[in-house]
Structure formats: C-alpha cells, structure tokens
Amino acid sequence: MLRKIIIAGLAVLIVACTTVPITGRRQLSLVSASQMMALASEQYQTTLRQSNLSDDRTQIRRLDRVGDRIIQSVEQYLTDIGQSQLTEGYNWEVNLIEDDEVINAWAMPGGKIAFYTGIMKLFETDDEVAVVMAHEIAHAIAGHGGERMSQMLVAQLGGVALDVALTDKPEETRTLAQVAYGLGSQIGILLPFSRTHETEADELGVYFMTMAGYDPQASVNFWEKMAAMGGGAPPEFLSTHPSSQTRINDLNRLIPVAREKFGD
Ligand SMILES: [Zn+2]
User: Fold this and answer.
1) How far apart are the CA of 236 and the centre of ligand 1, in A?
2) With bands split at pLDDT 50, 70 and 90, how would you rate the model's confidence at 5?
3) Mind giving me the DSSP string for 10-73?
4) What gap in Å lies between CA 129 and CA 96, rounded to an integer?
C-alpha cells in the first residue's frame, strides 16, 4: 500500500516537472506557462499603474538597446538548440520605474521586466547594464516565478493545480502570485528568490550576456561595486547569497566557460 502511494506520488511529481535550459536542473511545475503568463501580465500592468514611470529617454533607450540585444541572442540560441518553446507566448517588455532609493530590478514570467532609477546610477557601461538585464532575463526564461508559485501552492494549498486554486480560492491565489513574482513587498511579504534561483540566474546571466557580445568580466566588476556599497537594504540579487565573495568567485569560474561556449 505504502509503495503504491509512493509510486503515485512520484508519478505526479514526474508529470509536474520541467527542465531548466543549459543547467539541466529539474523543477516542480504545477502551473502551466500560459496560466503564469496571464497572471503575470495582470500583475505587471497593476504594478506599473501604481508606480511612477521614469521619463528619462536616455536611460529608457539604454535599457531597450541592451534588453533587445540579449533577448534576440537568447531566443536565437534557444531556437538553435530546439528549445524555442521555452519563450513561446512571451511578450518581452522592459520599463523604468522612477525611484532613486530602490537599487533593484526584477522579472516576471512571460518576460515582464522592470528596473528602478536607483540602480541606473550604478551603471557606467552597457556591459554593466547587461549584467543585471541578463540576470533578470535568466529568471524569466528559467521559469523561477512558476517554480516558486508551484512551491507555494504545495506549501499553502496542498499542491492543487493553479486552475483549481484559482477557481476555489481566487483571492489567496492572487496573493500567492504576487509573492511568487517578487511583488510581495507591496503586500507586506518579501520573499527573496532562493539561493538556487539566484545562483542559477547568475550562471545563465553570464552565458546570456556573452552570447549577446557583452563582456562577461563586467559581471565581476559590477558585483564588486555593489558589494563595496554595503549598508542599506540589499537588492534582491544580493539578499540570498551567503557572501558577495562567493558570488564573485563563482562568476570568476564561469567567465572562461561562458567565453569558451558562447563567445565569438
Ligand atoms: Zn535575481
């Protein structure tokens, strides 16, 4: 009997898994991509409406330029390896939110990205913009929002599928989605991405920026600059790492790999 239950449980988990490109990590996926994107799109529009969007044309053009170049390269790469379905239905969008105090950027499922003016002041070159842009694009492509949503459905609603949860508990589900997408701070819960997600977004990010022709060395330079700032509330990409030194060591190890595999 016990064995039967275990086998049934395993079957559910196997069915409900997807694989992250390049790293090959298996992830829990109780939520379909189209459901995630529909929810994310709604949350994204709400967030933008409640925010003060920047009208700094130079910085907006800069984000568009870097974003377009990385997205194009990554989509080409996914097509080349026969994985173009990973970004099917994505509607990439990058917006700049006016808030000089917030040194942050985030990405939601379906390619909805936002930067804050606070982080723009730290960028000296397009290569440095590419470090953060590629990291955020990596979160979106690796489906981290969906994985976190799945983990929260398991923890809080007993692992029901999203469509069931939406029908039975629409309010709770929307709150879960906000937290899963990293918008939890607006409703008083801040759940940082796990270390696994951050490390994976760092790794994929270095590959993605290299594919697009940016200098991966800028990743080390940028994180060293961030680490040197110290103090204040850490941005999401610093918050779940054991130390900036570990992150910098990891990146130093990955840069030659990125150049070898994805450089010109
Ligand atoms: Zn991150």
Assistant:
1) 6
2) very low
3) HHHHHHTEEE-TTT--EEE--S-HHHHHHHHHHHHHHHHHHS-B---HHHHHHHHHHHHHHHHH
4) 13
- Report how many domains make up the chain: 1
Structure tokens at 227: 């680490």
pLDDT tens digits, 228-244: 776 544 555 555 554 67
Give the pLDDT confidence of 39-53 residue by residue, as tens digits.
888 889 988 999 999
Question: Distance, CA 41 to ligand 1 centroid (Å)?
Answer: 19
Active-site positions?
Answer: 136
Domain that holds residue 119: 2-262
CA of 1 to the centre of ligand 1 (A): 43
Tokens of 228: 């040197």
From residue 25, give the alpha-carbon distance in Å to each of 142, 147, 161, 205: 10, 12, 21, 16
Distance CA 161, CA 48 (A): 28
Inter-helix orientation angle 170-180/144-157, to 10°: 140
- Write down the pTM of the prediction: 0.84
